[in-house]
């Protein structure tokens, strides 16, 4: 009998310590509050309280109230996960996926995310879907990926909503269905996800039934671009350059190409350079774009060197001063020494597309033709 009373007392004490630690953590304002939380959670965790083990693991992971210790975090979180705590299972899955405090093991990540997903945690559902899409730790299956994404999307997980929208849009693991793609893009966009705003805007430009109108679609794409989404800025650059879906505005086109180039889009970099060569762009954007090209050139990147050579022609697009051409020639010859096929292919592309660039005048097309010829048929630089 005494042994039973001691056991009951221990469990009761662990629960009280956990509850006190939780209440203190929620209202903690001082570092010493977190230290006390760690003490209370430690007491309960050592007595086998699973939720306290999870909380203690999180404190070690974040370095709150204790020194940050990934190994201790993983140990306590996995103990809680083994006791069936879904939130701990999800957290341990992240640790195994990232290799934080444990050796990276996508199979174990999948195991724990599957357990947490089965318990209804939408983040774990989305993460598990990502593993099935990539074939990490599980047999690659677009169908299984879509199944888990849909489960997470129904529970409101924003990335799962976007992922299943893309799946329906492209027919990946599910039958292609633009109506369902729109539904889930809208749901994720309403939660503010830039990628979903871009997807919804792109479907709107296609004129699909129940899709946003053109004006609203462009605004969604602008919001995605303002959030730093490379694809959104590149697409807006194309729209403003070609005049499709919106009035042609080469100043805006240059701005969006520049923003996309900042996100490492080589095609946007080249389009930006061509518009600079034609003298387009507001002074502030032109200055920033030229500085960006110069920085990349100084790093020795052949694409930047080539594009800087193209853009240098902005000095006089109509009368074409010889010294400007010589500077451009110098940069382009330097870039060609890297024997980069991307550079040579762009020379051919410039030649093909030169007449599409904002209704160019004859003398403007001449500049780009010279660049194209130099890139495709490189000449020896002057001695």
Name the descriptors.
383 residues, mainly alpha, elongated, disordered N terminus, disordered C terminus
Mean pLDDT: 84
Structural class, from helix and strand content?
Answer: mainly alpha
Pick out the low-confidence regions: 1-9, 315-321, 351-383
* Percent of residues in helices: over 70%
**Rg value:** 29 Å
Number of separate strands: 0
Distance between the termini: 102 Å
Largest sheet: none
The share of residues in extended strands comes to: under 5%
Describe the protein in words.
The protein has a domain of 118 residues. It is mainly α. The chain starts with a helix and ends in a 7-residue tail after the last helix. The chain is built from 20 helices and no strands. Helix 6 packs antiparallel against helix 7, helix 9 runs antiparallel to helix 10 and helix 13 packs antiparallel against helix 14. It is elongated, with a radius of gyration of 29 Å.
